[in-house]
Amino acid sequence: MNATIYLDHNATTQPTADVVAAMTDTLLHCWGNASSAHSMGGEAKSRLVKARAQVAALLGASPAEIVFTSGATESNHMAILGALTAQPGKTHIVSSTVEHPATLKLLEQLEALGFAITYLAVDEQGRLDPAQIEAALTPQTAVLSLMWANNETGALFPIAAAAQIAKAKAVWFHTDAVQAVGKLEVDARQIPFDLLSVSAHKLHGPPGIGALFVRKGVMLPPLMFGHQERRRRGGTENLPGIVGFGEAAQQLGQTWRADAAHMQALRDTFEQRLMQRFPDVRINASAAERLPNTSNFAFGHIDSEIILDRLDKAGVCASSGSACTAGGTEPSHVLSAMGQPPEKALSALRFSFGSGNTAAEIHQVIELLQGIVEPLLHEMAATA
Asked: All domains of the chain, ordered by start, with CATH?
């Protein structure tokens, strides 16, 4: 196999040619500061305004509700810390056990500082019961923060129900929609979330740029002070990144429905063929509502790193949900939260398809997996 088959789109995506061209043109010809009063500053500001409108349109928002950030980690932190700062009498946060580490690490720090954190549990399919949300919110709750779609399994949370519950209890609601935008309908006019995080590099835009949607009327204080971004996020704007984000958002607004249908067809075909070849394969969160592009699966107790290494050498880029640390590999916190023991969690692989993947690539990958996994299963059977 000569060409690389990239199946790790939940980790990052390739910027499109139009995104790269828009960014390059900005770097070469529009390098003024958008805060400057002269003509070059005016041209920079014009591009900033255009990109803000493009991102807003993708989210069903108004441009004034979009705050550009360095990425989703900053957006998540800005939302949660801002909610606490804006409501100094409230010291309780509700989230879930399967959030992205960018959120969980912040919550750990806040807990160490004395804030009360309630982590909602998921079932064996990665699903969250809305009744848990209602029971967890109290008069002391400053913010409910939930991911829209899980980055490892693709399992979806009941975001519309969560938003309504939070609204009824006058609790701020933030959703990390990094994996949802571009794969599902995300429309601020339809679901009353207060805050929403999005990242450009998951949308065929550049890394290092993201946004936080802040609904009109939500008085979110800044983390970094300055006059930029309507005083909500100080610092000179990353104009090339913002322009690239805007271009990616505009393209996606036109194609995401067709892209999602294409990715789901590939994912479903892959899983069907996988189950035909390997009747004992375990597909995680298969009974949950999932992202259209994500498949998380395992072959018995075979260490996923062995399979991933051999796939990589054959030209296939994929991932697992396990975290590599100095002390070795830790099981996925998501699969652990779903009740899987460490040996099962360590065997999981994640394939996340993109709009550029093809049916021919699916066929190639299935053949490769058969050549890699069958000998490993035989070895395990022989030593059992």
From this structure: 5-12+256-383 (3.90.1150.10), 18-252 (3.40.640.10)
Q: Is 324 a catalytic residue?
A: yes
Residues 259 and 234: their CA atoms lie apart, in Å, by: 35
pTM of the predicted structure, to 2 decimals: 0.95
Band of residue 1 on the pLDDT scale cut at 50, 70, 90: very low
Contacts of 4 (CB under 8 A, 6+ apart): 315, 316, 317
With the CA atoms of 333, 339, 342 and 345 taken in that order, what torsion angle do they form, in degrees rounded to the nearest 10?
-70
Strand partners, 96: 120
> Is the Cα dihedral 177, 183, 184, 185 positive or negative?
positive
Q: How many CB atoms lie within 10 A of CB 54?
A: 22
Options 324, 371, 374, 379, the catalytic residue: 324
Note whether 59 and 75 are within 8 A (CB): no
Instruction: Report the alpha-carbon distance of residue 123 to residue 338 in Å, rounded.
Output: 6
| 99 contact partners, CB below 8 Å, separation of at least 6 | 107, 145, 146, 147, 176
